[in-house]
Q: What sequence folds into this?
């Protein structure tokens, strides 16, 4: 392993991605599987490549990540957040372009808890006057 190894944590909903970025040829592995094999759909590939495309670092870094919790969509967003933070840690010059693309902001939206006496967080049981 190279000593040019940078770590960052990305989060979205209940998904947490621990990301290590090292100089390499653009391989991305998630939980010891290639990214396309782990997530399974072509849709996610462009999302994962976005931090590299925005900063002009296509195929320059390898990413090793462990992802826990949440669903696949939240895991992808957590992975992208982690990659962006690691790239920023690696080179502070990249901060402006990553910030402009909205990749450094943690999406803090989470599911609101269900309240007692109600059907959901905001939905009520049907009211009958008679």
A:
């Amino acid at each position: 392993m190279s000593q040019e190894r940078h770590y960052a944590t990305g989060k979205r909903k209940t998904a947490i991605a621990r990301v290590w970025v090292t100089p390499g040829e653009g391989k991305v592995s998630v939980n010891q599987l290639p990214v396309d094999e782990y997530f399974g759909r072509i849709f996610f590939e462009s999302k994962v490549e976005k931090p590299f495309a925005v900063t002009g670092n296509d195929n320059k870094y390898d990413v090793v990540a462990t992802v826990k919790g949440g669903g696949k969509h939240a895991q992808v967003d957590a992975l992208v957040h982690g990659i962006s933070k690691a790239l920023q840690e690696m080179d502070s010059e990249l901060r402006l372009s990553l910030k402009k693309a909205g990749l450094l902001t943690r999406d803090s939206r989470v599911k609101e808890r269900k309240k007692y006496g109600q059907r959901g967080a905001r939905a009520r049981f049907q009211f009958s006057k008679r």
Remarks:
- The chain has four helices and five strands.
- Residues 1 and 8 are 17 Å apart (CA to CA).
